Amino acid sequence: MSRYAMVIDLSRCNGCNACVVACKVEHNLPPGVLLTAILEKESGQYPDANRIFYPVLCNHCDNPPCVPVCPTRATYRRDDGIVLIDWDRCVGCGACILACPYDQRSYVKDDRTAYPGGSEYRHPALDKAPAGVPVKCDFCYHRVDAGREPACVETCPTGSRIFGTVAGGERPLDALIARNAARRLLPEMGTEPNVYYV
Amino acid sequence: MARVKDMNTGESSATGAARADDSWVPTVCLGCYNCCGIKVHRIKGRVVEVAGDPQSPNSEGHICAKGKARFLDLYHPGRVLRPLRRRNPQKGIGVDPRWEEISWDEALATVTAKLRAVLDEDPRGLVIAHFDLPGYGISKAFGTAFGTPNFHWNRADYCGAAPHVANLLLNGSFNGEIDLDLCNYVVLWGTQLGHLAETIPLHSAHKMADARARGARLVVIDPFCSNASAKADEWVPIRPGTDGALALAMLRVMLVDLGRYDVEFLKKHTNGPYLIGPAGEYLRDSESGKPLVWDAAGGHARAFDAPQVQAIALEGSYVVQGVQATTAFQMLMAHLESVSIEEMAAITTVPAASIRRLAEEFSSAARIGATVQVDGHALPYRPAAIHFKRGSGAHRGGFHTMVAIHLLNLMVGNLDVPGGQRGVNPVGPFWEVEKDADGMLVPSAVITKYNKPYPPREPAVPTTFDLQGLFPAGLFTRGMYPWAIAEPGRFGIPYRPRVLLHGRTNLMMNSHSAQAMAEALGRFEFQVSFADGIDETVEFADIVLPDAHDYERWDLFPANDPYAFITPGPGDWFWLMRQPVVQAPEAARPWTEVYIELAARLGILERFNEIGNETWGIAPEHRLDPAQRHSVREIAERQAKTIVGEKFSAERLRESACFITRAKTLAEAYPRPFLDARIPVYFEHLVRTGRSMKALATRLGLDWDLSPYTPLPRFFACEALEERGEYDLFIVNFKLPFQNHSVSAENLYIDEISTANPYAYRVMLNCRTAERKGIQDGDRVRIESRYGSETGTVRVTELIHPECIGIPGMFGHWAAGRPVSARKGAAFNNLLPAPNSRRIDVISGQIDSCVRVKLIRLQGAVR
């Protein structure tokens, strides 16, 4: 069964954060809410110190822990692997936020997108989460369904993010994953993430 | 996510009218100075998103965080929408100007009257300040027509005054870059090329990632482990301001200890073989006056370009014209023999073994002697390169440091050849490098943009506030403005500053201590600021004119000036046209159009157009009628027709703002093998010029140390390096890939990223230093220099040199019109003094950014 996946080449990411802004724009996100972020970590001791940039987002797991805990079945997994939230069904209980082992869901407390005292900025043709629901990366399904790449992928100046489909070793992305012995986060959880790191 | 609206049937297309206004407008980003081709999505008259233009070679469909976020600036509630007049005659930091709205008519009548008074008395009393690169052509023509030479005040000297000079001398170009397609050993020295904080950022970010993926080694020399250092194979932390010492030590290892240099390159392309006499100057042919070289075949000296020369000598000392004559290269070798690696190691804190290893690695990676076939030509192949910029250059010995680093490139023969370091387009479709009678390279005026650093000018009593007369071998010296404005008489300037036409450069934050800058601004009788928001400098204005955003205006063509913004190396010549996406709100107007109106009101429009016809490079058949008033769009279209000819069309402009004329020729892509102009290893022009400068300084009573006027690279320590006592730490500043100068901090998206980032709004202190001082992560501290003080929140980290405090970006806004960025982060520049004779590079006019500080722990902490 084919499903969507993303491979992130950590060696190419230089922490510029273009993906983060692209995602905010693409999802009309209010201040304080991110669907993807670049985590940073220091390693080593001066002068042999270094820093690591680690982009994170929803892993669109094959066994997503957020789905079974949802009392209203607002969170669901599409046949193509994209995990989405139906905000019309969602009651904002927050169970999914607690269930996600990757801490990739945020609760929208205040959905206003504006400077203090300014007019609202929003992309009228794109979705915007209302206050009182959780949000997370949706793999830009509206773009993917129209044959385009997710906003973060299109934007990334170094080409660190590669989007495509995996299907049991048959697809180019499968080959990339195999060739680089790609890693996934918290494999021991059995969630079978579809975001890979090389 | 059930409420998603289909991209094609969403609410934006609910009515026929709305459907008509849903378009992607191609234009050019101005989120920094780099001019990337973009497309801006407008729905119902509002900008909703921005993307890279896939047809533009400098963005290739990508965009950075700054560019992506920037449309929010249009909707900042602090936008100035109508002209404002100051009611409070008092000016100062934190003083409320008590603005009142006035009409454009009243504002322009007031401004015109003030300008006319200056025009009638002495037009040089007008000073123009902005850092809006595509508008330089307009302000230059206006200033020249008005009669003032002071039309170029901005912070550029704090940036690249010294590095640009080195690039112009050795590459014949304003900017440098690296052939990342072929380079295997990349050194970034005090800069972050390829990491979104430098030249041609989107293109070079991709190229850098590709280079590293194919195994190129990246070495970054920087006191802070920057984003570039994070991606490097080796981070070399260095004590601030000592880069020149490291470069000299590496030169010594390469030339003296390893004997590794490109003999053929030196003989053919440099003044290395020129004979130097006892006075330190070229020995010249008695008849032709040309510099002499030694012909080892005939055993005598001849003019450097004499056809009889068979075996040009690179090394050696000979008796010529009855005196001892030594080749320039030999002079350099002898000079380097006196350089002690251990001494330089102690100065720089880079271990001697590392210095030797870096020099060895770099010079062996350069593969001296190798060639590569490109388009059927065997070209030199030198896949190792060093790139340098402000970080290593912004010091008292800036010129010497930049040329010492650049000589490492020159010695391996990597300049403007495949795999090497390269100038940004030294030659192009309508410009060439020239050479003087001495056979030395003279950069094109198209690329230099300002005064050429070579050949040097005769030193002269300054007549301009940038004190160009005192920097005869410099490029631009705009950092001198505040100094000369404060004390014109001291330099013999026979007039005083009266009116400041300002816009789009935040002088109060981008140069040095705000207090000192406030005093400089206070010297003006009247300040006019074009502004889209009230920042720290606009707060000093008497009249504020509401400016359009660059999404709301046309600009001169091309927006991407080839001296810095057309990708160097192989590829296409491409030219970008900025066009408006939306209308400017309410009464806002592009400042460039207002300058044209002011020219008309002052009766100097005809002269403005005549100068413009020259300045703007308009072909004879497209020249403007000087008697008529033309819009910026009309001017730009004539420029476009001049450069791209028939390819310019309105239809094309609807699809992409990028006009491609043709592919570069091999000689444009890799110019050096095709040039016969020589470049210096010995800076002979400084000997003559230095003598004249010393005479002039004595005449003017200037206490300047002119010892840097010496022809061989030396290390000159910054004032801060020699200081001891209670100020025990250096401050260092570095760029963040998601911030641009002081401009982007007010953007909500950018502010959010910066807040989440571990370093952006912090000041960095090394773990061991923090431990010694009893300071913990999150502590609030006051950072005090002898010139100013700032407060900050400490990030204790392994990522910084233990003698330093790192202060990133340009933060710490305080103006009432900057609510998002107010009091976030710290302002590095506030700790610097106004320029003075001990803190400038006397050759390039670069301002020294080295300052020592002490830390004082304050109450409170952010954990």
Compact overview of the structure:
The complex is a heterodimer of chains A (198) and B (863). With 198 residues, chain A is an alpha+beta fold. Chain A is built from five helices and nine strands.
Structure in words:
- The complex is a heterodimer of chains A (198) and B (863).
- Chain A is α+β, with helices and mostly antiparallel strands.
- In chain A, 16% of the residues lie in helices and 21% in strands.
- In chain A, the strands form 4 sheets. A 3-stranded mixed β-sheet of chain A has the order 8-1-9, with helices on one face. Chain A has a two-stranded antiparallel ribbon with strand order 2-3. A two-stranded antiparallel ribbon of chain A has the order 4-5.
- Chain A is globular, with a radius of gyration of 17 Å.
- The mean pLDDT of chain A is 97.
- Chain B has 863 residues and is an alpha/beta fold.
- Helix content of chain B is 28%, strand content 18%.
- Chain B contains 28 helices and 32 strands.
- In chain B, helix 4 (136-146) runs parallel beside helix 20, helix 9 (243-257) runs antiparallel to helix 12 (341-348) and helix 9 (243-257) packs parallel to helix 15.
- The longest helix of chain B is centred in the N-terminal third of the chain and has 18 residues, at 104-121.
- Chain B is globular.
- Chain B starts with 15 loop residues before the first helix and ends with a strand.
- The relative contact order of chain B is 0.15.
- Chains A and B meet through helix 1, strand 2, strand 3 and helix 3 of A and strand 3, helix 2, helix 7, helix 8 and helix 27 of B.
Q: Any low-confidence stretches of chain B, pLDDT <50, length ≥5?
A: 1-16
Helical content of chain B stands at 25-40%
Mean pLDDT of chain A: 97
Radius of gyration of chain B: 27 Å
C-alpha Rg of chain A (nearest Å):
17 Å
Shape of chain B: globular
Number of strands of chain B: 32
> What spatial order of strands do you see in the largest sheet of chain B?
5-4-24-23-22-6
Instruction: Please describe the biggest sheet of chain B, giving its number of strands, its sense, and whether it closes into a barrel.
Output: 6 strands, mixed
Count of runs of 4 or more consecutive helical residues of chain B = 28
List SSEs of chain A in N-to-C order: EHEEEEHEEHHEHE
The total of beta strands of chain A comes to: 9
Going across the biggest sheet of chain A, name each strand in turn: 8-1-9
